[in-house]
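User: I want to check something. If I give you two sequences, will you return the structure for each one separately, not as a complex?

Assistant: Yes, each is folded on its own. Here is the first sequence with its structure:
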Amino acid sequence: MTENKIDIVVTDDHMLFRKGMMALLEDFEMVGNIYEAGNGVQLLKLLESIDKLPDLILLDINMPEMDGVEVLKYLHRDYPKISILILSMEDAPSLVVHLINEGVNGYLLKSADPEELELAVKKVMKNDFYFSGSLSGAVLQGLKSTTSHDLVKKLKLTKRELQVLELLCEELTAIEIGERLGLSARTIEGHKYNLLEKTETKNMAGLVIFAIKNNLYII
């Protein structure tokens, strides 16, 4: 981050939308440098050319030359520490879930208002995940299955890990969870790592989806 601010790349093939998004981001106090790219190819070239990598990429799905879905594999391979927030007009729950399973940190509809954009950026950087308010209910409820007890046994999830998982789903940070449970943030990070490993999820967004889908967390 630049002086404790968030450096962001806006990646979208529509210049007017891209410029408008950049103008909005400039008004957010927590945002530092803002870069732009018109497609996945330009994004990868940009990341190779700048001295300091950005903290967050706002990524459109449908773009020429290399779209958002295609560029994801390169981002995860070469820039795994950069958070990714999808910005799209597509609202199909199956697509949202697919992209989260592919490792994106959040999904926001382009029709969202500026306040939700600011909230999404803050949530992704603080909690590692964000789901658009207009999408989350339908998407997450549509995932529900009936598994829980058998899965807990199968994955060998401990009581403490289940406690940590519930609080992570409630958007608490490792420090906040540690204070709640009387443990160090480092210990909570250890539980978090174990949860990701046991559930074979890529990040917090995937872990939350997994927990809700399998009734390990009730919304």
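And separately, the second sequence with its own structure:
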Amino acid sequence: MINKTKILLIFVLGFAGLQARAALPLQVEGENLPSLAPMLERSMPAVVNISTSTNVKMQENPLMNDPVFRHFFGIPNNPRQQQRNSLGSGVIIDKDEGYVLTNNHVIDKADTITVTLRDGRQLNAKLLGADPEADVAVIQIPADNLTALKIADSNQLKVGDFVVAIGNPFGLGQTVTSGIVSALGRSGLGIEGYEDFIQTDASINPGNSGGALVNLRGEFVGMNTAILAPSGGNVGIGFAIPSNMAIKLMESLVQHGEVRRGLLGVTTQDLTPELVKAFNLKSQHGAAVSRIEAGSPAEKAGMEPGDIIVAVNGQEIKNGSSQIRTAIGLLQIGDTVELEVMRGEERKTLHATIGKPKRPQLAGDSLHPTLKGATLSPTTKDQIEGILLEKIETNSHAWKTGLRPGDIIITANRYRVRSLDELKQVVNPRAPLLVNLQRGGEAFFAVLQ
């Protein structure tokens, strides 16, 4: 007969190396049982619940936008609004400054952000910065008796490492699930603009977003972000943003309020078996350079079309173009990047300095005759999405109408506009143009005709 006590002892001894720092838990038949409780007692106070509320203007009949109609029928001018609430999680990274890391989609467009600590305290938070492309945001709470997580080097993670997800799924309150690292460097999923996910089978559900993925020492290795749920529920495929990536983005958000991504100036494509054969390559790892922008950092560094990028800053390119895009997207303007390329049978090392990105611009008169002399571009200045009037000639019709550089077009002909394409769709060059402008802390309407 198999001795169950011996089997239990073997399991405990095998697990002890992973959980060496845990205090001795309860005993059964004189044998110590492995437990994550001591580690979680240290870690859970650093994971917070986040609730937000957003006032959303309700859709109304177009007649309601006519002030004469509203006045005739005695309808108040105050637009009808509906309050929407959402729940998520966050991780205290700096207890002295009160910095809390979370997902952008948790706090996106929120009017109020409330953080609930594990000890029950509810604190108002302010947004320091957000990066929708990578789905990362930083909020700040009063730094009073807080607990922060230690940060681990996510580059040291291995497939098979044990991890624990801490968060607030379905608004139930703080919840812990465990699993392993299922895969690393997941990208090309279409979840975010920049992807380099840790995949885990630790259960992640709605509300876990922004919570912590920790190792068995209770160190922060990733931020829970998304799940693959074809049936609407958890199927054991969750994704977390690696701690190294999240912290680098957080530092930029704290310093600048935004992530100032730069330009390398290359277009790449994934290597297919046909391209591998055509380029006479020994491996399918890497990405082919198909285009180089004139005057770009890549051109100045000596890169050529047909080069195969095989490594960026020492990291081998295994996931093609998406991995390169993420690696470059984490760099700031002025950073130097080391690129290893295959050119024929020769392996070369090139160095480029990340430059300023070229923002899309539009000459105003190509949109509407009254905007002649104005230069427009999309902006997220001061967390306001709209169309920025970058330049206006002082002798132009736009200037005489009262438009000024720095004005932001929020709506055009009563349609919300966030991009030049959206603006083009709602403007009729043969009709007057009604714009809602943001100027500093003020907003007003102007009719251009």
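Because they were folded independently, the notes below concern the second chain alone. The chain has a mean pLDDT of 83. Residues 4-34 form one domain.
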